[in-house]
């Protein structure tokens, strides 16, 4: 109960999975329920205390976005902005067909929700060291992503798995995320997700590999892959 308070979102999500199992009246444990109970056991065994940081901690903003067009371009974009409104870091990556095939289920026509959540996952995994102990406000133009954070779970299994990894990074590195929605037309990361951008506002570019992020939603937050540019890849420069 205590872990579920004050941004203890990971435990609350696990209790939701267990509650779904009980409500459904299942007689045997599914793989998902077994994994859930194992995580609950580990969390209770670890019994990690909740830290309370100083209110003087620096505030930073993260903006993330994703685009999906199977015929043209699918991509992820994100940036970190400090209290003086200076853009410090950004990423802008194309999501190739192999990664989309891995994410999409048979008959599924769009993966916008999954890509939007993947953008959040890419941000916290890429910048966890910088964000540690800072106060972070994360902006997304996806109401489904924001709603999933508020209730701590998603009916979309892929998004739910990614949420679990995000919550783990949040706990391990003391990064309490506050999430807000920003209209698409006001999201500065929109351009970063709709085309490949290599220079943006004088900020440092961080390379992320969508295939690595999207594959099994690895829970190792230290993994940041820097792939080489693809031959013939067109990039855009933004002052």
Summarize the SSE layout with pairings.
Layout: H1 9-24, H2 31-46, E1 59-67, E2 75-81, E3 87-94, H3 97-103, H4 112-126, H5 128-131, E4 135-140, H6 143-151, H7 157-172, E5 177-181, H8 190-194, E6 197-200, E7 204-205, H9 210-214, E8 236-238
Parallel strand pairs: 1-4, 3-7, 4-5, 6-8
Antiparallel strand pairs: 1-2, 2-3
Structure report:
Residues 217-234 have low confidence and may be disordered. It is globular, with a radius of gyration of 18 Å. 39% of the residues lie in helices and 18% in strands. Strand 1 (59-67) and strand 2 (75-81) form a beta hairpin. It has 239 residues and is of the alpha/beta class. The strands form two sheets. A six-stranded mixed β-sheet has the order 5-4-1-2-3-7. It has nine helices and eight strands. Helix 4 (112-126) runs parallel beside helix 7.
Which features does this protein show?
239 residues; alpha/beta; six-stranded mixed β-sheet; two-stranded parallel ribbon; 8 strands; 39% helix
Biggest sheet descriptor: 6 strands, mixed
Rg (C-alpha, Å): 18 Å
Strand content: 15-25%
Total strands: the figure is 8
What is the H-and-E element order? Answer: HHEEEHHHEHHEHEEHE
Q: Bin the helical content.
A: 25-40%
The N- to C-terminal Cα distance equals 49 Å
- In DSSP terms, counting alpha (H) and pi (I) runs of 4 or more, how many helices? 9
Uncertain spans, ≥5 residues at pLDDT below 50?
A: 217-234
Mean pLDDT: 84
- Which strands sit side by side, in order, in the main sheet? 5-4-1-2-3-7
State the secondary-structure class.
Answer: alpha/beta
The shape is globular
